[in-house]
Amino acid sequence: MLSFNTTIRKIHLWLGLTCGLIASFSGLTGSLYVWQPEITAALNPELLQVENIENIKEGTILKSAVSLIETRKDRIDKIFLPYREQQTIAIQFKNGKTNYYHPVTSESLGEKSVSISFFESLLNLHRTLGIPLIGKYIIGTSAIIFFLILITSGVYIWWKAYANNLRKGIKVKWKAKKRKFNFDLHKALGIYFFIPLLIIAFTGSYFTFNSTYKSVLKVFNSQHTNLIKQQKNENFSSLNETLLNSNKGYALRAIYFPKDKTDKYRLRYIKNRFIKAGYRKTKEVEITKKGDITTLSDFRFDSNSNRIAAQFYPIHIGEIAGVFGRILVFISGVVPLVLFITGFRMYRLKKKKGLKRKALS
């Protein structure tokens, strides 16, 4: 019968060789995506960048959006106002094409480029492995296994070995033989990055199981103002009037147009248009074609569970801690691949050594 410690080691080994491979792919694609805003902006200045964007008033951007909607309304599926690396207005049409427009002049700047599409595909691979329907569940489940079992079992194994000599547990002998070097690098990287990896995996699985996470987070709720009841009776004569009406404290980020006659407009607002450290504060509004407006969420009045859930994305990608956080996530994203390679090499070398012993006996 296997001892508890041996069982933990076996679990860690086999989960590392299976779940660890998916975590390596997810980590590597996520690491590349961390710098997506800067890379796409540098590759597409004619589509995404505008001079002195910080001096352009909100009212000017909204008027340009209204002007574009008035001339193209029947063909629009979604419209995205300046946000993150995109300083222009983007319109996704019902035929699938996306065009970019100047936020002041409404001048057409061109269609979506190959590099922009590349990062969209990269994000899809990161979240779903490119597998329809079940891909996101594979990623989400592997993330849960990664932070609940794989990381914790690795920390347990490390603690049992080095509780009395912590310094030895984080030391790497760079000139050691192959097996020793692999072992040292594996144990040191695992313990150095176990907290960032734990956080990244925990927040990453939220995007698959968000409803479950929100249900659990309700334990943090208290009595809040019922914003939906406050706003439901407000009426506006048209969508354009709603857009031009100042939304105190927020900037309009996106408009999702109705899919059919019974569908509604969905407006998404953001506190800061461009990347900044700190909490992510959003607001979401639904509008009927008659002009009835319902506020679905607003960070200022939301329940604690919704406020916490809104931070999973900036935490996952490191933006909540600014540039330092993004650098940490970038490096951490590569670590699972290094752990997988070193762990696999350790396994192969151990197996090869075992076969030699059998041959000699």
From TrEMBL:
Q: Which InterPro entries match?
A: PepSY-ass_TM
Q: Where are the transmembrane segments?
A: 12-35, 137-159, 188-209, 323-347
Question: Which keywords fit this entry according to its UniProt record?
Answer: Membrane, Transmembrane, Transmembrane helix
Question: PANTHER family, alphabetically?
Answer: IRON-REGULATED INNER MEMBRANE PROTEIN-RELATED
What protein name does the entry list?
Answer: Putative iron-regulated membrane protein
Tell me what organism the protein belongs to: Mariniflexile fucanivorans
